[in-house]
Design a protein that fits this description.
The chain folds into 2 domains: 68 residues, VC0802-like (2-Layer Sandwich); 58 residues, ACT domain (Alpha-Beta Plaits), CATH 3.30.70.260. Helix content is 30%, strand content 39%. The chain is globular and about 40 Å long.
């Protein structure tokens, strides 16, 4: 099961923060593979999966952005009813909680990409082995 490095950054909840970070990453040649942006009472939390974690870290450091990093699973599932339910069900039966997840697809695509944050990456990988993707 493919794993990826994810960065979580907290920024002020105001217009332009996502643009500022995405532009800085883009100017450094870092491609954003997935992201989730959500608001909290005091700030915005943005999670990024990128193609070059080392470059992203340098950008966040240069911008004095506090961040955390963690490994997440990236599932490529067929775009069909029940695909996510099957994957999530396997994790549930293995006793593995999904802390949060986000996904996306391109219209007309045959596959969807889902990012799953789980506490037990090894167990999740084992539980998802053989999943028809």
């Amino acid at each position: 099961m493919p794993k990826a490095k994810q960065f979580s950054v907290r920024v002020e909840n105001k217009p332009g923060e996502l643009a500022r970070l995405a532009a800085a990453l883009g100017q450094a040649g870092v491609n954003i593979r997935g992201y989730l942006a959500c608001e909290t009472k005091d700030a915005s939390l943005i999670r990024f999966v990128v193609d070059s974690p080392a470059k992203a870290k340098r950008i966040f450091d240069r911008l004095a952005i506090d961040y955390t990093e963690e490994e997440v699973l990236v599932l490529e599932l067929r775009d069909r009813p029940g695909a996510l339910g099957e994957a999530a069900g396997r994790l549930a039966r293995a006793g593995i909680n999904i802390d949060y997840a986000y996904g996306t697809f391109a219209p007309g695509a045959r596959r969807v990409s889902d990012v799953l944050a789980v506490a037990d990456l090894a167990g999740a990988t084992k539980a998802l082995r053989g999943l028809k993707t």
